[in-house]
Amino acid sequence: MSQNEDLRIGVYVCHCGSNIASVIDPKAVAEFASALPDVVLTNNSLYTCSDAGQRQIQEDIKNHKLNRVVVAACSVRLHEPTFRACVAEAGLNPFLFEMANIREQDTWVHSHEPEGALEKAKDLVASAVAKSRFLTPLDMIKVPVTKTAMVIGGGVAGISSALDLADMGIKTYLVEKEPSIGGRMAQLNKTFPTMDCSI
Amino acid sequence: MVDAARHPNITVKSYTEVKRVEGFIGNFKVLVEEKPRYVNMDRCNGCGACSPVCPIEIPNEFEEGIAPRKAIYIPHAQAVPLRYVIDEEACIHCYKCVDACGKLDAIDFSQQPRQEWLDVGSILVATGFDNFDPSVIKEYGFGRYANVITAMELERINNSAGPTAGRIMRPSDSKFPNKISFIQCVGSRDERYNLYCSGFCCMYTIKNAVQWKQTYPDADITIFYMDIRTPSKGYEEFYRRAREMGIRFIQGRPSIITEDPKTGNLFIQAEDVGLGRTIELESEMVILSTAAIPRVDTDAMGSVLNISRSPDGFFMEYHPKLRPVDSPTDGVFLCGAAQSPKDIPASVAQGSAAASRAARILNADEWEIEPIVAMVWEDRCISAQGKKCGICATKCPYGAILVETGKAAMVTAAKCHGCGGCVAECPHNAITQKHFTDAQVISQLHALLRHEPEKKVLAFMCHWCSYGGADNAGTSHFEYPASQRGLRVMCSARMDSDFIFEAFRLGAGVVLVSGCHPQDCHYITGQRVGAERFEKLTKRLVDMGISPQRFRVEWISAAEGAKYAQVIREMDQTLRQIDPQALKEEIERTRPELERRVRRLPEIPDVALALELAKATS
Amino acid sequence: MQHTDNTPHSFKDEVMAEPGGELLQRCYSCGTCVSMCLVNQTCPDYNPRRTMRMVMLDMREETFRNPTIWHCSACDLCHPHCPQGIHISDLMRAIKNVALRAGYESPLPSAKVDEHKCSGCDICEKACPYGALSLAAKTIDGKERKISQVDRSLCMACGICAAACPLSAITVEDYSNEKVAAQIQAGHWLKKAKSGDPKVLVFNCSWNLRAEADRDAMSELPANVRVVNVPCSGRIDPTFVLTALQAGVARVLVAGCQPGECHYKQGTRIAQGRMHTLNHMFEQMGMDAQRVQFVQIGTEDRGRLPATILDLVAELKSSTVAVA
User: In terms of CA atoms, which chain B residue is nearest residue C44?
Assistant: First the structure.
């Protein structure tokens, strides 16, 4: 529980080249974050997701004993898996990582309103830091895997994926709604660009 | 085709449809239904004695309706499996086929649809495309003028295995047409029908023209196009070859085709853009290069598989650049034209890509899934105190919660997908969601509204759709006012009424709750759980004296960036139209009631601390 | 080399800011509008696709100097076929409006009102498809009266108003009542044609023939058929028909456009009503109710007008023979 823990939060603000930095000043966001309680380290770098950027986070976790990492950069749909893996490699539970989306949901949509975008970036970072205080380490749930695949549709794409899976030793159901597999391609005579037959 | 049927690791299930899918990555259960063929697959040897005696003739789908087929038939000579099938709708039960089959005794009218559940670890969706019906484009006369045909019809006419045995004839008088024209982009790149480019029509038209010209060097062939798109390997060279062969390319989209009723010939009117002049070209046959469109059953298939569609109507991939064959549902992959129109090389490549993405899972002994699941605080659950409740179980889309009076509700972690509906619905705040706890969300709320809350558009977003929609607005650079503050949870089901009360208590100007469209919900019925709650909440907020325009519910898919931006713009506009003094008064006036609503929040573990910290920070 | 300007406040932006001009940049130059356009057929310099290009390339003065930009009559044959959903006639209107503000004027002929004849009855205002006519106070012969006035920038010279005016107070250059009447009789064809051949007069709208073959066929009709071209079937004053019948014409055929395809929006509909009334009148007078026939030719009706005329001639001939 967070109240029993000495929180050490690191905040990383990404420039994303000019994607973020051309609208707002990442340094200003980092400075703002440094004043938030329990934030012991802030950083802004050109590309946080780069090898160098990730190495920095890992070193900081070790050297500064960070136990929460917040990255303000792009969408969680893009790089949350990247940074989770990064902190995990440095020994931090991946669920102690939190992200603030200051690109897709900030600088990319408020390029004509840089002041508003900067205020918003600060709030998004504050929000991520606030959440990070209450993060708890979690373990992935492991589930068994049925080693069988199902391909729905017996056209050219379905047949080629089924053959690849089968060649890899995976039992595959090829489900086709029509009485015969083959799909559209079976209807064609010659095909481009080699003018050979299709079946 | 034959390779697939013979492969020891492949079981072909033809004439079979997917009815239901349950489970999750690595552990799907799929209900399939095999339609009755009325022909015993083990006895039929494909000899074909039955078909000639059948008295029924109906249009043959495989031949694009140009030729007939019988009620007992094989789709085509190279069908796999090579087994006959009886079309129940066409069959008149004369039983002549039974007599013809004789001793083989393969015909069996007692067959019934056969359902079975199959256990699979991964699902690959390769459901393909349909062809656009050009009869809706009245000006091209398809369906009215006999000699206007589709490219697919030409494929069958110009095929030695086709209904004319490869002898080319035009429909009106069975004569050989020497002067033919192709028209491109029929139903595509056209905002009246489909905005997208079908991609492969340029090449199949050039292929058809080259094939024709090779057989009939004297043929007079014209292709009307807007742009010729040949970006793949060897394609531009193929296009050049076509030009060098003497096929005429005219840049200009025909506006109208008229027919000379006497000859059946067609007059195409188009501007030759290069020439800058309108031309009229007489043709003996016109071939329309129709667009590839999403299959008619895409919606039904999408709701079975829990995957959604892009604005073009095809299945949507997880990420257009980085995860192009993953669907938003873990363990379900997309390939071929089901995802977007594709030619053969691209379909084959994507089939292989999807196979390798699926093999990552299928070759693993176990797979890790995110622990974002529900958890019950047993001491808070009233069921444990012997009281009847069980609301959580009724809201769970997966049957993951077991409630027995006298015991605390129990969540089966492997079954829970983590929508958070039970958490938000529990009247006693006895359930939490890992990684999206009340304390976490409340902390975020306070941070987002720490400064001038009355000027903010607070937007709750679900992870899968509306957060994706907001990302899409970003990647498309659809601007909206920076007054927006977004808060992500996994599903609209998790958006607790208390969060919204708390947002208004803090003085938020306007509040948006946004999630998936009902058919797109990542958690089957999670969206519905949220929607029902928001409907009641809308009324309750008004009763409390909150102006109705300050609370809005919107369903926004991950493809609807434009809609997301528009909703935020409208809400910002709404906020600006409210008199600031009146808003301030409303906030003050409604605060006591809102405080009463959220008074039990601090009882939830960590929330009191979160509130305290928020206070200290602001 | 063409200098282009793609900065804000260019000509393009000016046109796009005008109502109707918004969708300009959607045009991908497919030429559908051009090949659907009947103005382009007779006047190839009028090319809406090229005009849109010129606006996009900021060729302001050159666009305005092209007299054909005024030719679009908003028949809207093109719009439903545009794959980008551009309302081309609205866009042309936007360009015209910018041109008007820049001091350019329509070079097209326009209807003219004889102020002394006009009674201010307002019928013309209701008949005009373009809202080009309106009543305005004016001092005529020392008295202030409300009379009809023409807005030259809106008038397309279709002549619907001229046919509608009960006092013959409106004239359209080249198609005045006198000129049309002269054409009906010109060349003494009525006397020259063989006495046995029934004479047929065709009033043909200038826009209903799309196929070149049909236009050729119209100039190769037999000597007992006379074709008088008018800008629109709506220009046909019933007195033209009466003049022709009085002069010895057996049948009058009026050919207009198919409803929905009229080059001047509603001319064909108005003509249909007028010809119907005329036949009704003939019937009441005990005459053959089919003395005037009205046909509406669509853009897809290849060969229909020449065939209709020849059929009519043959039918008249056989009935004349039968009577004889």
Answer: B277
Which positions in chain B touch C37 (Cβ < 8 Å)? 278
Q: Using 50, 70 and 90 to split pLDDT, how confident is the model at C4?
A: low
Going along chain C from its start, the domains and CATH numbers come out as: 11-101 (1.10.1060.10), 109-172 (3.30.70.20), 176-318 (3.40.50)
Taking the CA atoms of residue B587, residue B590, residue B591 and residue B592 in that order, the dihedral angle to the nearest 10 degrees is 160
Residue type, B37: R
pLDDT tier at A58 (50, 70, 90 boundaries)? very high
Q: What is the pLDDT of residues C152-194, one digit of tens each?
A: 999 999 999 999 999 999 999 889 999 998 998 887 788 776 6
Radius of gyration of chain C (CA): 22
Contact A153 B439 (CB under 8 A): no
CB C190 within 8 A of CB C199: yes
CB contacts of B252 in chain C (<8 Å) are: 30-31, 35
| Placement of tokens 């669920």 in the chain | A95
Q: End of a domain among B127, B150, B184? A: B127
Alpha helical stretches, state H, B390-496: 391-395, 421-425, 438-448, 466-475
Q: Which CATH number do you get for residue B430?
A: 3.30.70.20
- The tally of CA atoms less than 13 A away on the side-chain side of residue B25 is 26
Residues of C with CB under 8 A from a CB of B: 28-37, 40-41, 44, 47, 49-50, 78, 81, 83-85, 210-212, 299-300, 302-303
In angstroms, what CA-CA distances link B303 with A100, B162, C210?
A: 32, 37, 50
The pTM assigned to this predicted structure is 0.85
Which of A172, C166, A75, C230 minimizes the C-alpha distance to B351?
A172
Question: How close does chain A come to B17, measured CA to CA in Å?
Answer: 5
Contact between B192 and C85 using a beta-carbon 8 Å cutoff: yes
Phi-psi region of B493 (alpha: psi -120 to 50; beta: other; left: phi over 0): alpha
Q: Which positions in chain B touch A104 (Cβ < 8 Å)?
A: 470-471, 473-475
Q: Which two tokens stand for residue B348?
A: 């084959």
Best mutation target among A189, A195, A196, A198 (most B Cβ atoms within 10 Å) is A189
Would the ipTM clear 0.90, i.e. be above it?
A: no
Pairwise CB contact (< 8 Å): A155 & B446: no
Q: What's chain C's length in residues?
A: 324
How far CA B183 is from CA of B209, B247, B253, B323, B332, in Å, comes to: 12, 13, 8, 35, 37
Domain termination site, one of B293, B327, B358: B293
Interchain proximity C35–B139, CB inside 8 Å = no
